[in-house]
Amino acid sequence: MQTSGASFVRDSRASRGGSTQTPTVAPAFIVDAFSEVPFGGNPAAVCLIDTDLPVARMLAIAREFAFSETAFVRKCDGNYQLRWFTPTAEVALCGHATLAAAAVLWVHGGAIPGKAIHFDTLSGTLTARRSADGITIELPRMELIATTLPTDTADALGIDAVACFQTPMRGGIEDWDYLIPLSSETAVRQLVPDDRALARTRAGVIVTAPADDTRRFDFVSRYFAPFWGILEDSVTGKCALRARALLGPASQAARAARVSSVETRRCN
Fold first, then answer.
1. N or C terminus: which one in the chain shows less Cβ crowding within 10 Å?
2. How far apart are CA 60 and CA 53, in angstroms?
3. How many other CB atoms are found less than 10 A from the CB of residue 2?
4. How many angstroms from the chain centroid is the CA of residue 67?
5. C-beta of residue 10 within 8 angstroms of C-beta of residue 30
């Protein structure tokens, strides 16, 4: 599956790597993914490092940036190693921070224009390509497992304990999501979770429904992950791809001629 978008690199600073006794300086950038203007889309920090950093150090840097995701990129054997951290933990996949990392490498990191970038990640090899329309990344196909939403999670969302789906853990770390189909776009927009109660759910939570105006959009989605330090992510390619994996087949026949890519927008 693919997601694409423009990325605006709006700021740069030095991140502090190495040990506390002998800190090193690595270039870092703030990138607004899914946006062509500053302070739009979904911001991510991107740190270009030339050596592995301890996990504790990367977490400390991610907490200092305080974005939903901070990407750490290291060149390795002609490709790039890519890791993503929220303010509280490492995760196995992030779409918008991958777009951000690719944008930084092409603009500031010496990547060859016109040549694809291959990222080695916990979710396998991800490939980014750049064209006049923006940056496109290939993400792994989403597997959905039918399950029932735990009562505590449903109560935190203010909904009934409905049938839903979950994704398997990837990369050997506890990073997975619930995908919950709701009845309407209005139900998605009006959802007001209890963030403190939802933080007890050790997973991300995606709520989604078919869009009211299907001439413009196929579906709307929101993504909550307070356990990972993310109350709500503003725009997320991973969320859109998972919702499409659920809702896409049902609408494919009706809109096959029109649907060619995933488009994301804020619902909050």
1. C
2. 11
3. 14
4. 11
5. yes
Query: Between 237-255 and 95-107, two packed helices, what is the crossing angle to 10 degrees?
Result: 110
Q: Which residue has the higher pLDDT, 220 or 16?
A: 220
Say if CB 8 and CB 42 are below 8 A apart.
Answer: no
Pick the CATH number of 145-255 from 1.10.10.10, 3.40.50.150, 3.10.310.10, 3.40.50.300: 3.10.310.10
Position 45 pLDDT exceeds 90: yes
Q: What is the CA radius of gyration of the chain?
A: 18
CB-facing half-sphere around the CA of 218: CA atoms within 13 A: 25
Query: Which residues are known to be catalytic?
Result: 69
Mean pLDDT, residues 195-220 taken together: 90
pTM above threshold 0.90? no
